[in-house]
Amino acid sequence: MALLLRSRLLKSGGAARSISTAAWWRHVEPAPKDPILGVTEAFLADASPSKVNVGVGAYRDDNGKPVVLDCVREAERRIAGSLNMEYLPMGGSIKMVEETLKLAYGENSELIKDRRIAAVQTLSGTGACRLFADFQKRFSPDSQVYIPVPTWANHHNIWRDANVPQRTFHYYHPESRGLDFASMIDDIKNAPSGSFFLLHACAHNPTGVDPSEEQWKEISYQFKVKGHFALFDMAYQGFASGDPERDAKSIRIFLEDGHMIGCAQSYAKNMGLYGQRVGCLSMVCEDEKQAVAVKSQLQQLARPMYSNPPVHGALIVSTILGDPDLKKLWLKEVKGMADRIIGMRTALRENLENLGSPLPWEHITKQIGMFCYSGMTPEQVDRLTNEFHIYLTRNGRISMAGVTTGNVGYLANAIHEVTKSG
Ligand code: LMR
């Protein structure tokens, strides 16, 4: 039958063949622009000399230039020439994963000593979340995931593509521009026992609003009562306070309460390794035997997707964290980045207040991490872009990492112009 069809097609000449092949992708429409990375594309296409990009969460120095940390340069110098191009194991660099676990779980973690954590290197934080979502689908196929409102836009894509149904829980309170703690706790209590929740460990993206230590304790307690599972996305360890230990507090509280958490880590921001795609997914297990089983399944999920993760970025991380002097330098540099951002928050708020803005701007300095959730409407954002060549996401999120002493006045003035009439 197949042969007959083929000879008919050939006899009918090239036209028939080209019609049948051209039809393959006729139904494919252009994908919508990514709400975050699409902003960078628009920024790059703008020829204006006064343009400003406060869209993507990528750190810039005070001249608006991308930064390669000194500890990274030094690690690259040390590994140059010694790097071979062999495959890493499916679970990635064992040394990098070991060092990464210490950051999240603590240098002296009993869980690490008892080998109760299943962990693999991932393609940054996105890859870690996606691997977890696929794991969730495979081993808890009827479960759903609770995601905060709002959250990083890509979280929705990740669990959608893993075919895990999504529910939401209250997080942000637009009026106070802070945490809607009471509604969040209600949602935790009302979710079916044993639900999966996605939590931002620190420097919540996009709001910059984190629970206090006391609030984390209460959240952990309620999770215990309901038997919920927490996956922490920790993309900004070090960026909230300048101290990676302090920024791991939420996780440590959950661990003290005996939760078997999952954790997605990334070195994009805190080591500036954006394009290297280095991260880690870890899951606390009941014992070593279970951790071995879980790790083997994570590896089996990775194998048909990308086989094994890339080596270069992982080697940079393990070189830095494995050397006390380089680690010290890294800690100093993370603090330097966090402090510059904190300084820009103060400058932006002061500029707006000095312009006589009638609106309250305390939240700029109260929120933490890379982002300020300004409260501007999509229409006000459109005006910023169209009239002032300032690029940001339409939810009003400002990447404070793109604010500099050179552009803060211009930015404040433009924000004042588009917000002063309400
Ligand atoms: C952001 O939120 O801007 C960053 O996490 C970059 C990204 O991939 O979206």
Q: What does the model show?
A:
The chain is an alpha/beta fold. The protein folds into 2 domains: 35-67 and 336-419, Alpha-Beta Complex (Aspartate Aminotransferase, domain 1), CATH 3.90.1150; 88-322, Type I PLP-dependent aspartate aminotransferase-like (Major domain) (Aspartate Aminotransferase, domain 2), CATH 3.40.640. 48% of the residues lie in helices and 12% in strands. The chain has 18 helices and 13 strands. Strands 2-10-9-8-7-3-4 form a 7-stranded mixed sheet. A two-stranded parallel ribbon has the order 1-12. Strands 5-6 form a two-stranded antiparallel sheet. Helix 15 (324-354) packs across helix 18 (408-419). The longest helix is centred in the C-terminal third of the chain and has 31 residues, at 324-354.
Write the topology of this structure.
Blueprint: H1 2-11, H2 14-22, H3 37-45, E1 52-53, H4 70-79, H5 94-105, H6 110-113, E2 117-122, H7 124-139, E3 145-149, H8 153-161, E4 166-170, E5 172-173, E6 178-179, H9 181-190, E7 196-200, H10 213-226, E8 229-234, H11 244-247, H12 249-256, E9 262-266, E10 279-284, H13 288-306, H14 312-321, H15 324-354, H16 362-366, E11 371-373, H17 378-388, E12 390-391, E13 397-399, H18 408-419
Parallel strand pairs: 1-12, 3-4, 3-7, 7-8, 8-9
Antiparallel strand pairs: 2-10, 5-6, 9-10, 11-13
Helix pairs in contact: 4-14, 4-15, 5-14, 7-8, 7-13, 9-10, 10-12, 15-18, 17-18
